[in-house]
């Protein structure tokens, strides 16, 4: 019914794919604003080693969800990384949670495989469950070419009958990775 999984898989997808050459991407923060009665994102960003931040935690689906909840996203960029965000003209496609999971299974099978207890391909409605994300790095391969360096924020909302019922945010810092290129 609601798209907690949309955000969860996006987060894992962002954190799992191997880094792009010359760009370092690290999670900065994850926060759920409301909607815990539908899905509770108990996710934390933690320092994995000296240079890497990972996403860890549990996503609890508290009631069955189908494509009636429509997910949409807004993207913001702080070029200086100082929390002064400007809206960026880019977003993820608007879709229901079942459609989103099917797309993830088809396009990002390795990301889906790393989530414990993830819904199966074509499973709809998504049943009540607990999923686990363990030490997932940001997947740099999902980033489009030409993105500006800085602090990026993705806000994901789920609406039912045009009423927003779930909202959460994830932020990722993109930096030049000259130090790891052997120059």
Please describe what this structure looks like.
Helix 1 runs parallel beside helix 2. This protein has a single domain, classed as Distorted Sandwich (Ganglioside M2 Activator Protein, Chain: A). The longest helix has 13 residues, at 4-16. 37% of the residues are buried. 16% of the residues lie in helices and 42% in strands. Strand 8 (150-160) and strand 9 form a beta hairpin. With 183 residues, it is α+β, with helices and mostly antiparallel strands. The protein is globular. The protein contains 3 helices and 9 strands; from the N terminus they run H-E-E-E-E-E-E-H-H-E-E-E. The strands form 2 sheets. Strands 1, 4, 5, 6, 8 and 9 form a 6-stranded antiparallel beta sheet that branches. A 3-stranded antiparallel beta sheet has the order 2-3-7, with helices on one face.
């Amino acid at each position: 019914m609601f798209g907690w999984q949309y955000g969860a898989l996006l987060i894992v997808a962002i954190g799992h794919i191997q880094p792009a050459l010359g760009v370092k991407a690290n999670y900065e923060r994850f926060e759920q604003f409301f909607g815990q009665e539908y899905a509770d994102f108990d996710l934390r960003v933690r320092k994995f080693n000296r240079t890497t931040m990972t996403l860890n935690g549990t996503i609890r689906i508290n009631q069955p969800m189908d494509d009636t909840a429509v997910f949409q996203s807004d993207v913001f960029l702080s070029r200086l990384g100082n929390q002064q965000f400007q809206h960026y003209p880019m977003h993820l496609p608007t879709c229901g949670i079942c459609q989103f999971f099917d797309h993830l299974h088809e396009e990002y099978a390795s990301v889906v495989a790393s989530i414990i207890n993830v819904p199966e391909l074509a499973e709809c409605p998504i049943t009540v469950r607990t999923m686990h994300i363990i030490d997932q790095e940001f997947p740099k391969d999902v980033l489009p070419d030409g993105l500006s360096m800085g602090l990026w924020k993705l806000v994901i909302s789920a609406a039912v009958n045009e009423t927003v019922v779930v909202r959460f945010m994830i932020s990722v810092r993109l930096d030049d990775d000259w130090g790891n290129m052997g120059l």
